Amino acid sequence: MSVKEGNVGGKKEENYFETAKRYLLNDTKELLDLLQKFDKTSIQGSMIKKLEEKITCRPEFTFAAVERTSFATKFLYMWVKAMWDYYKVYTETKPLREKLLVMRQIVEEKTAELKVKKEALDKINNKIKDLEDMFNLKMFEKQELTNKI
User: Fold this and answer.
1) Which neighbouring-strand residues pair with 12?
2) Rounded to whole angstroms, what are the CA distances from 48 to 9, 16, 54, 87?
């Protein structure tokens, strides 16, 4: 927190630029690694709410405005926007993904049942084939005995 210039009464405003310079911009390779290895599925709703309250609601949070500031901020903007959009889609599709997991489990169970039933059917069909072969053999023997008589 720092006192904003021109404010009467010493009202403090959040200023993350000094912290960003000291920790993030000091080693850009580390920053790039952090961004690439960021676990986007661990984004919390409180983080998105804070982002929406403090950053995305501002009129200067547009690609055109950010693109004019610097080359690097353009890509940081794109990354933040992508994470924000990912969170929105991820939370909207969460019920569908949960339903998909349930349906996959049901399909696996039914597939296992089907496999058992197919094995039983194969046993029955083999038994029927054996009985048909035995029947044909007995009919052939009967025909031979009838011919001998």
Assistant:
1) 3
2) 31, 17, 10, 8
Q: Would you say the pTM of this structure is higher than 0.85?
A: no
Nearest to 34 by CA among 83, 69, 89, 67: 83
Roughly what angle, to the nearest 10 degrees, separates helices 71-92 and 94-148?
Answer: 50
The values of phi and psi at residue 3, to 5°, are: -75, 125
Q: What 8-state DSSP symbol labels residue 16?
A: -
Q: Tens digit of pLDDT for each residue in 92-142?
A: 999 999 999 999 999 999 999 999 999 999 999 999 999 999 999 999 999
